[in-house]
Amino acid sequence: MKKLNVSAKKVALGMFISLFSIAAYSQFYINVGGGYNLGIANQSLLNNYERTNNIVKMENVKTSLGKGLNFGLNLGYMFNGNIGIDLQCSYLLGDETTGESEDNFTFFDINYYDFEKISIKSQMFRVNPSIIIASGFDKLDPYARFGVIFGFGSINLNYLDEEYENNILENKVIEKWKYNGGMAFGISSALGLMYHISDLISVYGELDLVGMSYAPIKGVMTEYTVNGADKLPNLTTDAKEIEFLDEITYDYDNPPSTAEPSKELKFYFPYSSIGLNIGVRFSF
What pTM value is reported for the model? Predict the structure, then answer.
């Protein structure tokens, strides 16, 4: 009986010491950092087209809208030197991707030149809850982070069309759209190295990987000008507003009203990326 009591006391003492060690080490932290992301798993969103008389050249433009600058703030808690939880809030300022079309030909001694340009870029606020596994080393502390990521953003699509005759601009159209609504979802992971300057301040660098796509649920034309004149107020609702759906049924005997947004199928834009981030950690 005494042996059992002694064993129970040892177990209780061990649990107390373990809990005390966790409590002694456990700490909150704030990371402030940023970096640049390169697009991966790119898709052919746009293309380049060039025609000079009877010679035509076409080229795919592959990209991911996850490419661009990234700024983030992390709130985290380390239970001990090896395991923690992390919540990152970041803002993605995406790079612009463009596709151009040039049509150049001569007909009855008149040179016709048509230039079109489409550009697309994105901004996104992202929330990334993760689990952290660290080495727990005193100075140089390698770590890994795994989690899911949610995004709330918008896509800007701009269109320019210029028509020339004998190098004189005859017609110019500018059209701008904004697509937004809905939520993006994906997974994320990172491998990093933390350098502890002191118990309160550390610096880090990490290689960050994101796999994600996003399908907006609505689109609104924000600008429509012809030769400098604003034509947007003249358009019907279905010409300047879009509702993106997973499924569409169209009745030719009962067409939708032009006073309602037009309906199109959802399109999933690529947002996967790999990036290098650096920053500072404040522990308390």
Answer: 0.85
